[in-house]
Amino acid sequence: SLPSVEPGFVLSHVRALGYKRLDVLLGAARDLPHQMFVHVGDGPHRRDLMAAAPANVMSFGSVTDAQLRWAYQHASVVALTCAEDFGLVPLEAAAHGVHTAAPDARGLLTHDQTMLTLYPFGDSSALADVIAAAPAPTGERDPTRLGVTRFTEQIQAVVGHYA
Questions:
Q1: How far apart are CA 145 and CA 93, in angstroms?
Q2: Is the pLDDT of residue 28 over 90?
Q3: How many CB atoms lie within 10 A of CB 52?
Q4: 139: left (phi > 0), else alpha (psi -120 to 50), else beta?
Q5: Distances in Å between the alpha carbon of 75 and those of 68, 98, 151?
Q6: 3-to-6, 29, 38 alpha-carbon distances in Å
Q7: What is the mean pLDDT of residues 83-105?
Q8: Residues facing residue 101 across a β-bridge
Q9: Fewer C-beta neighbours within 10 Å, C or N terminus of the chain?
């Protein structure tokens, strides 16, 4: 578990780097003052992030694998603020039965749309709206979405295509 964190928070699992647009997360947190936001991820901008964060944001920097699994299992929704070329966070969230709010940009558009709601990139108010309306977590861990077997099958399919 994470110290002083109760289940039902918004999880942001991303390194604290400028281009990751954590300012958007802080804006959404300001729009939803009664919702707890938990940031997990270290980085050079973490100190600045927390200095500007409202009281409903907690940041844990680096965590253990067990703590990260706990975070996914107890989050109400996962919030992404950066436009990723691919992005593993939505896959990890879906594997834990948790919906992701993500920018309508780049590689995130190729993810499972049943576990993802898109919002306009950089719009903290839209992110807050998506978080407020996000479906409840299923509570079911689904290794078929992200697991060794699926990973192996997908890699073999890609390699086989080019062999």
A1: 10
A2: yes
A3: 10
A4: left
A5: 11, 7, 24
A6: 9, 20, 11
A7: 86
A8: 79, 117
A9: C
3-state secondary structure the chain: CCCCCCCCEEEEECCCCHHHCHHHHHHHHHHCCCCCEEEECCCCCHHHHHHHCCCCEEECCCCCHHHHHHHHHHEEEEECCCCCCCCCHHHHHHHCCCCEEEECCHHHHHCCHHHEEEECCCCHHHHHHHHHHCCCCCCCCCCCCCCHHHHHHHHHHHHHHHC
Rg (CA), the chain: 16
Q: Count of alpha carbons within 13 Å of 8, Cβ hemisphere only?
A: 5
Q: pLDDT tens digits, residue range 78-88?
A: 999 998 777 78
pLDDT of residue 143: 64
Q: Return the minimum-mean-pLDDT range out of 16-20, 84-88, 121-125.
A: 84-88
CA distance 128 to 151: 32
Q: Residue 2 and residue 129: Cα distance in Å, rounded?
A: 26
Which tokens in the block code for residue 95? Answer: 């594997």
Pairwise CA distance, residues 145 & 137, whole Å: 15
